[in-house]
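User: I'm curious whether this sequence folds into something compact or stays loose and floppy. Could you predict its structure so I can see for myself?
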Amino acid sequence: MTLRMTMKFCAILTLMGILFSTHAFAQTEKLQATVVPIDGQPIVIQNFTINGELFYDAVQKGKPVKLPFQHLKEIKFLNPGKNYDTEVIFNDGRRETYLLQPASNIMVTSQSSIVTLSHSKVARIAFSPMPVQPLSPDTRPAQQPQPSASPGTLDRVILKSGDSLSGHIQTTTFPVRTAYGTFQLEAPQIASIEFDEKGPNTAVVLLRNGDRLSGAVEMESVLFVMTSGEGVSFDGKTIKIINFKR
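Assistant: Here's the prediction. I'll summarize afterward.
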C-alpha cells in the first residue's frame, strides 16, 4: 500500500512539473525586436512574435530545435535573400549556426495597416527588452510647462522655394511605399515628413513613436488651411518639409 501511494505521489509530482514547465514557457517575457531589411531602414517591432509564438523553429546538424527569443541577442542571416542560414548570438555570448525555419512572415503593424515582411528580405534581427511604459498622469511628477512648446498647435509646411506657412493640414492619410510594403499612415501618427531629391516624392517619415520610414510618399497634393482661413492645395513636388503639430 505504501509503495503504491509513493508511486502515485511521484506520478502527480511529475505531471505537475510538466504542467508548470509548459506554463513557464508560455509566459516567456515578450521582447522588442529591431528588424533590419536587406534594403531599407530598420523597423522596431514591439511584442515581437512569429505567428503568435515567442520562438523560432530551426535545424542544427539535422536536428530540429527551438530558439526562444528571451535567450537570443541577435540573428544574422549569412546569405540574405538566398537562404535561411543564420548565425545566432545568444545572451551569454555564444555564437552558433542554424538553419532558420520561420512559421510565417514578420508582421509589421501600425494603427491603420498591417504589412508582412518576408524573412528572405531580412539581413538581421536584434532583440531587446520592451521599453518601460511611461507613468500615468496621476503618478507622473509635475513638470513646468515649456515656453517653446506653446506654438505647437499648428502644422507647418516648408516649401522648396523657402516659404514657410503655418496652419492646419487637411489631408488625413499619407500612403508611404517602402521596400517592404506600403503603409497607410494617418496624420496623427506622423511627426514630420522630409522630402529629398533622390526620386519622385522620396522622403523620410518620422513617426511620433520614434520610428522612421524611408520611401515614396504617394500623394499628388496636400490640402492646407492657413491661419488666415484661406484654403490652399500644395503640389507634393513643391514641398520640402511638413512638420505636424505636437
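Summary: Residues 9-28, 139-151 have pLDDT under 50 and may be disordered. The first strand starts at residue 31 and ends at 37.
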